[in-house]
Automatic annotation (TrEMBL):
GO annotation terms (biological process): inflammatory response; innate immune response; positive regulation of antimicrobial humoral response; tolerance induction to lipopolysaccharide
Keywords, comma-separated and alphabetical: Antimicrobial, Immunity, Inflammatory response, Innate immunity, Lyase, Mitochondrion
Gene3D superfamilies (UniProt xref): 2-methylcitrate dehydratase PrpD
Reactions listed under catalytic activity: cis-aconitate + H(+) = itaconate + CO2
Gene: ACOD1
Stretches assigned to the MmgE/PrpD C-terminal domain: 273-446
Protein name: Cis-aconitate decarboxylase
Length: 470
């Protein structure tokens, strides 16, 4: 009998083994795990994380998992995965793949939470973790290859809320050892938890998309374990997973003996500053053009600049001429260009309210125009940014950025990826723990027991005196 697409996914999830992992995939996924942990630690300082964790405190259960960098806070596993997922995406600092999604944030918090929640008789090794993580990443990638719409920067649904929810369910199903039939049910249940609209991009709600994907995928696996059933053809149908895409044509996955990993062929991008990926081309082009406009390391007076033209793809939700909040500024071609021109680069504090509202920034923002050349398509694989600046004396300068450092065509060096992790994690953890985490993640395939990792993620133990009753 012919396998359905949905069955073929369940077979792959259930059937993949540590033996299927390649060296290439292990190396790439370890980089993703390190980066995701780092942005997660940094994200625990944000307002949206604070709101999500305050809300989650209403839940408690006998089984609990840690919130990264918060030794005093434990939550039921789905809610630990939720708040850690929110932290990861809280600043839009997490990894980005092609076709476009943020793959790691929906998957890693699920596996970390499950590692702690399952009985201690069940030891999970670093290889178990790498396998389940890669199953969660692979499922997301395969689903995005079923639609032309998915290969572009999104217009309707935010991809982590769609494919991330299924990747989370797949990773949880793998880690929990579900049968093929139950893996299939978990996918069906997850589809009914999927989908968040793009209108909430550039707001505090967008990070919830990653947190919800993590939580709902885990819940889908738990419900499947309890025997809950869904539509067994959910990935085959236009009214199933196809509801999220305009032109959905799913394919049966190949047999396991001819399995190849998408991550082997397509690496992810790592961000050097916390903003929408498309703005990274803008920042690079602005750094290049600034060299023409600087005297004694300071930018020319802003009134000498007549106009600034950015030639970028037509991505409406990153076209924000006068952003008012940090979340809008992270999704603004215009703001990233102006802040780079003024400051010489973008850093984490660039998105603080006091930076966004500076008079010089506002003055420059008023001079920016966007153009959308016909050949500059909204794809992270092909887009570019050209910037032209005309001065009041008539001189015009033009620079173009085709690939920024951190993109899969120009990957971050090992040292720079470690540097990003150190900078992010040291906001919550001591230097010793930070270095130990780097060592563990870089040698994850040799780790015998993942509880070593989860113990470090909690952060420093609080002093006993501090636990006063309220």
């Amino acid at each position: 009998c012919m396998l359905s697409v949905t069955e073929s996914f369940a077979r792959v999830i259930h059937g993949l083994t540590v033996g299927h992992l390649t060296d290439h995939v292990i190396q790439r996924s370890k980089r993703m795990i390190l980066d995701t942990l780092g942005v997660g630690f940094l994200g625990t300082s944000t307002d949206v994380f604070h709101k999500a964790s305050e809300y989650s405190k209403i839940y408690s259960s006998n089984v609990s998992s840690s919130v990264w960098g918060r030794p005093d806070l434990r939550l039921p596993p789905p809610y630990a995965a939720f708040v850690n997922g929110v932290a990861i995406h809280s600043m839009d600092f997490d990894d980005t793949w092609h076709p476009a999604t943020h793959p790691s944030g929906a998957v890693l918090p699920v596996l970390m939470a499950l590692t702690e929640a399952l009985p201690s008789s069940q030891k999970f090794s670093g290889l178990d973790l790498l396998l389940a993580f890669n199953v969660g990443i692979e499922v997301q990638g395969q689903l995005m290859h079923f639609s032309k719409e998915a290969s572009d920067i999104p217009k309707r649904f935010h991809p982590p809320s769609v494919v991330g929810t299924l990747g989370s369910a797949a990773a949880a199903s793998k880690f929990l050892g579900l049968s093929t039939a139950k893996c299939q049910e978990a996918l069906a249940i997850a589809v009914s938890h999927a989908g968040a609209p793009m209108a909430n991009a550039a707001t505090q709600t967008k990070p919830l998309h990653i947190g919800n994907a993590a939580r709902h995928g885990m819940e889908s696996a738990f419900l499947a374990m309890l025997g809950l059933q869904g539509n067994k053809q959910v990935l085959d149908m236009q009214t199933g997973f196809g509801a999220f895409y305009a032109n959905y044509s799913p394919q049966v996955l190949p047999n396991l003996d001819s399995h190849t990993w998408l991550l082997d062929q397509q690496d992810v991008a790592f961000k050097r500053f916390p903003a929408h990926l498309a703005t990274h081309w803008v920042a690079d082009a602005a750094v290049s053009i600034r060299k023409h406009l600087v005297t004694d390391r300071a930018l020319l007076p802003t009134d000498c600049i007549e106009r600034i033209v950015l030639r970028v793809p037509d991505v409406q939700y990153v076209n924000r001429p006068f952003p008012d909040s940090e979340h809008e500024a992270r999704h603004s071609f215009q703001y990233v260009a102006c802040a780079t021109l003024l400051d010489g680069g973008i850093t984490i504090p660039s998105f603080h309210k006091c930076q966004i509202t500076r008079p010089q920034v506002r003055e420059l923002l008023g001079k920016v125009e966007l153009e959308h050349p016909w050949d500059n398509l909204p794809s992270f694989n092909t887009l570019y940014c050209e910037i032209s600046i005309t001065l009041s004396d008539g001189a015009t300068f033009t620079e173009c950025a085709e690939t920024f450092y951190g993109h899969w065509r120009k990957p971050l060096s090992k040292e720079d990826l470690r540097g990003k992790f150190r900078a992010n994690a040291s906001s919550m953890l001591s230097c010793d723990i930070v270095e130990r985490l780097i060592e563990i993640v870089e040698n994850l395939e040799d780790l015998e027991d993942c509880s070593v990792l989860t113990t470090l993620l909690k952060g420093p133990s609080p002093p006993v005196m501090a636990s006063k009753s309220i």
